User: Which sequence fits this backbone?
């Protein structure tokens, strides 16, 4: 990791540690928009890592974005930060300006299709997209849709109609309905960006968030095991707890590696293989990790009072968002089968 | 708590350039070796193959030239290893010497020992076994009892080693004996020796594994004389040397590729028309495999950079062997075909071989429980 990235990591960790308190998470769960947190994140230049400096961004790489998104996951940051990072990248790749303020991306489900059609000098958007992260709170929605035979990126104002919903962690997951609404701007997507880019890069973002969440679980559970005493000694001195936490450490390390590898591939270009592998590996780690962290914490970890649940509930939702392990495993498996057995090793080592 | 670091990195162009050369060599050498043979992975013993590897300069790659080495980078060596294992090449005749015994001598051996043994190992002409475990000393390695008593000009050895893989084929073994006994300090008093497997006073008998194969041995020492100049390192330094030696072997590609031949046969079997279930199964295994390769590579890069990734290496071995053991289970769950010995399809035979081999993956070179204890220590739990 280069030095700048280390500094970036320190900045986000300090910022989130200071601002993402238990009170803030609870108020966000009650539906309050954490405006001060958003402002601090934006002022620190964390929202546009992949937008060129000439366009007001940080001019960074997916590797930089990984640091920010992973930290956001680790601290359960209740903002569409990952979505803004992906959305602004899509916009700038299409030569469009990224507006300030929170962005979201749509469609978030593979079953939903949004239609973009030319209308005079501009474009209109129609269709409905469910489970859009912060669909109601984000100022703009970045949509990727196929139009006139090619993937287009469109910047739309909040949908004509918003139906509020939420995920397990009470993060907004809203349904947006576009009824031939005019978009702010639209342009062909950057070369290599597929029509399924929101699905693909949404999965990429979630993989980093989950990796961050697992890092929290590992540290928190290890810490708790050294503090909590039963039978006259810290529970972490029992081999059975040690073995469980070692398993959690393995999944955490694998999740981190898989996610980081996918972000690195995104910097190189075609990252479909690595993103699919990451979402599968990280999603599996999320389930095992949440289970071990809870088992280690006993009953206290099962309470709303204890902060553990802010992360475990997110992991249970995030692993299913933008495709669960099953979806991505099928996609990956089909691609592998199509290339054939003899191509597997050469393919792996060429990535 | 210590933090785990699996920083990603790229293999240097020189290492990648080597890959093509190794693949071409393997294509020629292995030809149409049947999958079940390739599934033996680093268990296949073939002296002729090892000599060819030596001639290519692919043994002792990182050692100094004055000892017959080639002074290439650890990453070039890594590429050769992973290509060998992915192809299922029979590397066993030089594997132990290249991975453990040679590096041990480089580090702790005398100049005379290095000059005598290393060039021959580098040529692929000297095969080593490891004599560590004893009937009453498995995971509790410090409780070793085989005695090496000082006598004129050397040591007289009495005791028994077990699970000594390929000792019946090897020329030498690096054995750890007790030279001093103090029940209060059992980690002290252990010493390592170079033992000629043909020495008088050594009796070997096979220990047949559950599949009926002979690779393990029981090695009994009865007043076997080991000359003084065959001692490796100082008397009593054995424990430190052994733990260093074990760390050499934790994170390599051999810790996640043992079932690779089965994954290939699975893909071959379903690739024409993978249903959703088969595709999901293959995809999941490949996701694990791809991640493990990056983790293992990351440790190799850290080693090359002079760091000390002991904890990361333990994690790779634990996660890697878990994966290797899962592959036969997953294939069984998906296809429900019968595992066979030498009948049926390639897939059935590879499944049969690896199903019976898999229990050893999390035993050899330190059990899963011991490894997880090491990881837990890194987490600050002990």
Assistant:
């Amino acid at each position: 990791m280069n030095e700048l990235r280390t500094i970036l990591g320190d900045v986000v960790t300090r910022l989130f540690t200071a601002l993402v308190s238990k009170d803030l998470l609870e108020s966000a769960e009650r539906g309050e928009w954490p405006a001060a947190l958003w402002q601090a994140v934006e002022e620190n230049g964390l929202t546009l890592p992949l937008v060129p400096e000439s366009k007001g961004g940080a001019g960074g790489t997916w590797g930089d974005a990984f640091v920010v998104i992973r930290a956001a996951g680790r601290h359960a940051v209740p903002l569409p930060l990952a979505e803004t990072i992906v959305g602004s990248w899509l916009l700038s790749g299409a030569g469009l300006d990224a507006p300030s303020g929170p962005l979201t991306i749509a469609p978030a489900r593979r079953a939903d299709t949004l239609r973009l059609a030319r209308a005079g000098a501009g474009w209109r958007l129609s269709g409905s997209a469910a489970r859009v992260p912060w669909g109601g709170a984000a100022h703009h929605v970045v949509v990727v849709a196929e139009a006139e035979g090619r993937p287009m990126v469109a910047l739309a104002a909040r949908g004509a109609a918003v139906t509020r919903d939420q995920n397990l962690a009470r993060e907004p997951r809203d349904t947006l309905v576009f009824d031939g609404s005019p978009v702010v701007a639209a342009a062909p997507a950057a070369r290599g960006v597929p029509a399924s880019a929101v699905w693909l890069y949404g999965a990429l973002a979630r993989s980093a968030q989950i990796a961050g969440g697992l890092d929290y679980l590992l540290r928190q559970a290890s810490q708790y095991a050294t503090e909590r005493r039963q039978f006259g000694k810290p529970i972490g001195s029992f081999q059975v707890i040690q073995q469980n936490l070692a398993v959690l450490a393995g999944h955490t390390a694998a999740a981190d590696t898989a996610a980081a590898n996918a972000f690195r591939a995104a910097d190189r270009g075609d990252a479909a293989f690595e993103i699919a592998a990451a979402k599968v590996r990280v999603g599996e780690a999320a389930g095992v990790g949440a289970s071990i962290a809870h088992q280690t914490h006993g009953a206290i970890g099962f309470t709303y009072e204890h902060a553990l649940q802010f992360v475990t509930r997110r992991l249970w939702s995030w692993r299913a968002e933008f495709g669960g392990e099953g979806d991505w495993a099928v996609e990956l498996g089909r691609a592998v089968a199509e290339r054939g057995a003899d191509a597997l090793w050469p393919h792996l080592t060429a990535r | 708590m210590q933090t785990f670091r699996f920083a990603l990195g790229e293999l240097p162009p020189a290492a990648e350039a080597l890959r093509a050369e190794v693949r071409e060599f393997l294509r020629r050498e292995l030809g149409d070796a049947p999958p079940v043979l390739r599934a033996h992975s680093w268990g296949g013993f073939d002296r002729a193959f090892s000599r060819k590897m030596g001639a290519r300069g692919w043994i002792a790659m990182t050692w100094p030239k004055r000892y017959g080495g080639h002074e290439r980078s650890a990453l070039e060596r890594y590429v050769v290893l992973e290509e060998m294992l992915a192809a299922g090449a029979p590397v066993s005749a030089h594997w132990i010497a290249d991975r453990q015994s040679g590096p041990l001598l480089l580090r702790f051996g005398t100049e005379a020992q290095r000059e005598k043994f290393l060039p021959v190992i580098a040529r692929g002409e000297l095969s080593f076994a490891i004599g560590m475990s004893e009937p009453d000393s498995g995971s509790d390695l410090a409780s070793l009892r085989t005695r090496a008593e000082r006598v004129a000009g050397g040591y007289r050895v009495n005791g028994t080693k077990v699970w000594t893989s390929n000792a019946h084929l090897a020329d030498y073994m690096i054995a750890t004996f007790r030279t001093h006994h103090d029940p209060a300090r059992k980690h002290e008093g252990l010493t390592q020796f170079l033992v000629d497997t043909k020495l008088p006073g050594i009796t070997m008998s096979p220990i047949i594994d559950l599949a009926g194969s002979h690779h393990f041995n029981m090695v009994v020492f009865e007043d076997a004389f080991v000359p003084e100049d065959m001692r490796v390192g100082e008397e009593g330094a054995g424990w430190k040397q052994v733990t260093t030696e074990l760390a050499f072997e934790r994170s390599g590609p051999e810790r996640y590729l043992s079932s690779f031949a089965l994954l290939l046969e699975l893909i071959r079997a379903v690739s024409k028309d993978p249903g959703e279930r088969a595709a999901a199964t293959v995809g999941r295994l490949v996701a694990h495999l791809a991640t493990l390769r990056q983790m293992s590579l990351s440790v190799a890069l850290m080693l090359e950079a002079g760091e000390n990734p002991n904890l990361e290496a333990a994690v790779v071995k634990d996660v890697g062997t878990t994966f290797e053991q899962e592959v036969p289970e997953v294939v069984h769950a998906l296809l429900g075909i019968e595992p066979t010995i030498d009948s049926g399809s390639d897939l059935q035979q590879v499944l049969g071989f690896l199903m019976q081999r898999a229990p050893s993956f999390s035993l050899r070179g330190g059990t899963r429980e011991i490894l997880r204890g090491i990881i837990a220590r890194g987490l600050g739990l002990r």
Observations:
- Residues 339 and 352 of chain B are 4 Å apart (CA to CA).
- Chain B is about 45% helix and 15% strand.
- The longest helix of chain B spans residues 276-304.
- The mean pLDDT of chain B is 94.
